[in-house]
Write a structure and sequence with these properties.
- This protein is an alpha+beta fold.
- It has one domain: Arc Repressor Mutant, subunit A.
- It contains four helices and six strands, in the order H-H-E-H-H-E-E-E-E-E.
- Strands 1-3-2 form a three-stranded antiparallel beta sheet. The protein has a three-stranded mixed beta sheet with strand order 5-4-6, with no helix packed on it.
- It is globular, with a radius of gyration of 16 Å.
- The relative contact order is 0.15.
Length: 137
Amino acid sequence: MDQEIDKKLESRQIKPTAMRQLVLSLLTEQRAAISLPELEKKFEKADKTTLYRTLKTFEEKKLIHSIDDGSGSVKYALCLEKCECQHDDLHVHFMCLSCKHTYCLNDMSVPSFDLPRGFQLNTVNLVVKGVCPNCNY
C-alpha cells in the first residue's frame, strides 16, 4: 500500500488496516464527495458494516467530514491536511443538479450570521446548488 496513505492514517492516530487503506485511497482519488451506497458499490465484496465503521472512524478522527446536501444520502469528503474543524463544516459545498455530485469549495468560507439576541449558532450547513463545469456544456 501507498506510504502516503499510511502516513495520513497515522497522522490522525488511525491504525492502518487493509480496509482503511483501501477506503482512504479511494477517497483521495475522488473529486466529489461520495455516499456510503456509492462506496459500497465500489467495494461490492466488502462488509457494509466495516465500510460504515471505517467512515465513522475517519470522521471522528477528523480525516473526513460528512455533508448533508439535501439529496437524502449523507456524503463524505476528505478534510484538508490542516483541518482541525469540529465538523460544523466551515466551508461551502456545491451540489450539481445535473450529475448530483457534491463538491467542497474549500476556498469559500461560510458567511457570518448576526443572529437575534438569545440565539446561539452551533452549526452551519451551506449547500449551493447549480450546474458544475463538467455538466455546463
